[in-house]
Amino acid sequence: MSAPTVPNLLRDHLADLAQNDSRLDGRDQFGARELKLETGILPRAEGSARVTMGNTIVLAGVKFQLMTPYPDRPNQGGLMCSCEVRPIAGRHWEAGPPSPEAIELGRVVDRGIRESGCIDVDDLCIIPGEKAWQVILDLHAISDDGNLFDAFALAGIAALRSATVPAERFEVGQDSPLKVSKKPIMCSYHKVGGRFVYDASYKEELGGDERIHITLGDDNHVHSLQKGLKGIFTADEFEEIMEHAKSRCAELRKIVD
Amino acid sequence: MGGYGDVQMIDENGLRMDGRKPGDLRPISIETGVIPVADGSCRMVWGTNEAIVAVYGPMEAHPRKIQRQDRAVIDVAYNMAPFSTTDRIRPGFNRRSREISKVTKDALESVVLLELYPRSKIRVSIEIVSAEAGTRCVGLTAASVALADAGIPMTDMVISVASGKVNDVVVCDLNKEEDNYGEADLPMGILPNTGELVFLQMDGDLSPDEFKQAWDYNVDAAMEVHKLMIDALKGGDN
After folding, report:
1. Which of A32, A100, A154, B91 is buried most, with the most CB atoms less than 10 Å from its CB?
2. Quick check: A143 and B38 CB within 8 A?
């Protein structure tokens, strides 16, 4: 992504709005855009989901491959999460090798899902030391109007939960649903006009400062955190968004099946 | 092309494995305005293929060296999503997608009125999110709908269809099995208002008569698809 020029006008406008507890689209500080989650939408993927959050649209697809377990972990399969933001998603995304932004996106989503332990890698082993499943979650942005992080994380866990292990195609037994025991959910906050807001749009991201991503598992266990971009925040600010994340994650957990 | 004739793909009644007659197309649906942040967009579902296309621009062409003083350039990026096929595709550049991007660009530059936008660039991004066979045709056809949705002036839209041969029978719009085990594949890009061509490829083995039949199937199919495109553009959300 080429570095966009941010007009001071936009920053000033966002600061004015923040003063009046408002946002560009009229939401309040922790207001969310309309959210839609659909699963089983990609016929060639073993599991899939499409998340629409306002004008942001992302796809997630799950594929399986057979792998040889690593010598130090002969009883384990693998989970891989890869993210691509191609030029289709917006005029500010360009073709070429993954940008640092896209790599950060994929890795933060990956950590939340991996560290929650929602997929038992021991369960992915077929023959110890010889054969195991590698689960690959591919995240694909279609339309970027901000907060790709949350959209990807939600689409990712929903796609995994809808996935079928294609054992018959690989001739290693019977097809069965992929076991996903937990529901890690990410909530992201952007500093816009001097305060943190939830579910930022692209313009808010453009005219904002630092961002914080929080992934909470069942029972509000914290599974991943990431602070991105330049900016300073206080412990009180963090506490405030953490409180919101707990209630919002609980709401979103109900939407994921 | 794959094997020759060991797989029976035309039954005793002359029907294909998916029940189509030799000249029939797969089911097609077209939707415009599917990407809110793009200037024009299209989702085209064609059999089990699904292409999503965004058009951005005309906008400033950069880096400067790609600018043309007298016309716009079209930047086409065709890509298959990792989950679009039975076996996962590793993301990143490959020679196949580069070639398809290039021939798609060559086809679109033949119809867009480039001289109206000197020194600018029109970006066309084609993502195949589900692939069966004939993704280059679906991508090119969807791209011309997305350009129309973006209001980019063109002399005509492009409709791309492929016909081929299976079990010595010429068939229109090959599906996955027919593409894998068939004996020929002839994709064409047709301008519906004049019958002119802007895209042509072929591989396999066709006799002169078979070639004529495949060509005619493509032209007839293009007229059918053109009606669907017009309906989608007239009734679309944008």
Report:
1. A154
2. yes
The pLDDT confidence band at residue B235, using thresholds 50, 70 and 90, is confident
Query: ipTM score of the complex?
Result: 0.91
Instruction: Give me the total of CB pairs closer than 8 Å, taking one residue from chain A and one from chain B.
Output: 96
Burial degree of A13 (CB within 10 A; 0-12, 13-18, 19+) = middle
Set out the domains of chain B in order of their start, with CATH numbers: 28-234 (3.30.230.70)
Give percent of chain B with pLDDT exceeding 90.
87
Do B82 and A136 count as a contact with CB atoms less than 8 A apart? yes
Question: Is residue B1 scored above 60 in pLDDT?
Answer: no
Neighbouring residues of B216: CB distance < 8 A, sequence distance ≥ 6: none
- B contacts of A146 (beta carbons < 8 Å): none
Contact B36 A57 (CB under 8 A): yes
Pairing of strands A176-177, A125-127: unpaired
Considering only the C-alpha atoms of chain A, give the largest distance between any 2 of them, rounded to a whole number of Å.
62
Average pLDDT over residues A46-55: 98
pLDDT in tens, A25-43: 999 999 999 999 999 999 9
Question: Which residue do the tokens 């084609």 mark?
Answer: B126
Q: Which residues of B touch A87 (CB under 8 A)?
A: 54, 56, 77, 123, 125
Greatest Cα-to-Cα distance within chain B, rounded to the nearest angstrom: 61
Is residue A137 less than 8 Å (CB to CB) from chain B? no
Residue A230, amino acid: K
Average pLDDT over residues A84-96: 92
Cα within 13 Å of Cα(A129), Cβ side: 0
Chain mean position to CA A128: 32
Beta strand A131-143 pairing with A56-67: antiparallel
**End-to-end CA distance of chain A, in Å?**
35
Measure B123 CA to nearest chain A CA, in Å. Answer: 9
Could you report the per-residue pLDDT of A121-172, keeping only the tens digit for each?
999 999 999 999 999 999 999 999 999 999 999 999 999 999 999 999 999 9
Rounded Cα gap, residues B141 and B148, in angstroms: 11
What average pLDDT score do residues A226-247 get?
Answer: 94
Q: What is the mean pLDDT of residues B179-200?
A: 94
B76, β-bridge pairs: B124
Q: Do B127 and A88 touch (CB under 8 A)?
A: yes
Is the peptide bond prior to A71 cis by the omega test (within 30 degrees of 0)?
A: no
